[in-house]
Amino acid sequence: MVSKTLSQVKISVLDLAIVRDGGNPSDTFKNSLDLAQKAEKWGYERFWLAEHHNMQGVASSATVVLIGHIASGTSTIRVGSGGIMLPNHAPLVVAEQFGTLATLFPNRIDLGLGRAPGTDQFTAAALKRDEHAAMEFPANVEELQLYFSEGNKNGRVRAIPGEGLDIPIWILGSSTDSAYLAASLGLPYAFASHFAPAQLYKALTIYRNNFKPSDKLKKPYVIACVNVIAGDTDYEAQKLATSFKRLFWGIITGKREQLKPPVKPEDDFRDAMEEAALQQMTQYTFIGGPEKIKDDLNRFIEFAQIDELMVSSAIYEHEARLRSFEILSKLHKEK
């Protein structure tokens, strides 16, 4: 396998529609669209949104609606889900929704699918999620593929719009289970290493070793999602990253909050055990000025041998977040 560098892979955006402290979902949606428009101009391949529920700091619960909002405000960048948590929904409804999106925005819509609830157990129950839903995920993916197929035109149940449309399906994963599924179905695979780094290498190895070519994909295709917080200097990036670290520490402790303003790095103190837990969860987080970001990402890409790098950036100030993505786009263009 030939080693790649940052300039040789595609780059994309994962937007979690994070609501910052003192802000609101309306501000978040405006900022998401602004980022998507800038990302399109800077050469990013795709802009994905993730389904989450019952989180005061995340506003992407109605993911399909947001995808339509972003797609309507852009013209060339691919827009999609990273992902739709399929066990929360009937496959027919997802087929109809994404069929509608793909009809409105031809050749621009991606459908990334996950099996987790995207929330806590109580909210999952409120979503009417069946306790066996995760086990039915492979069958639900195949049902969805059937609705999109030309061959279903004589079926008793049809997705209109949706039937016969070329809507790329991606399998998302944070463990090894989905790697086997993506490989067996011959579908592209996206791994959530931005919050679940432990099994990245094992999952990608399983996917590549077990991949079966399909009419959709002839050889394995991998996206890895990572966190990138880039600044004009290493110190500036470290300061911006204090917001991100506090956000993830809230996830670890169960004390979820909105994204807080940054503080000086030297004031962002945790004891050794807390810091170790945070580092373990955020192993594939890249923080620094341009030179450090480029070196670190090149090492990661060489290690993971990915085809595409998807980036999430939890940065408090919108302009600083834009700057982080702009820095990465410039590094991507360097040979």
UniProtKB/TrEMBL annotation:
Gene3D superfamilies listed in its UniProt record: Luciferase-like domain
Which positions are tagged coiled coil?
A: none
Enumerate the Pfam families for this protein. Answer: Bac_luciferase
Name the CDD domains for this protein.
Flavin_utilizing_monoxygenases (cd00347)
Q: Where is the Luciferase-like domain?
A: 21-299
Q: Which InterPro entries match?
A: Bact_Lucif_Oxidored, CmoO-like, Luciferase-like_dom, Luciferase-like_sf
SUPFAM superfamilies xref list = Bacterial luciferase-like
The lineage's top-level taxon is Bacteria
UniProt-listed PANTHER family: LUCIFERASE-LIKE MONOOXYGENASE
Similarity annotation: To bacterial alkanal monooxygenase alpha and beta chains.
Q: What is this protein called?
A: Luciferase family oxidoreductase
| Source organism | Flavobacterium pokkalii
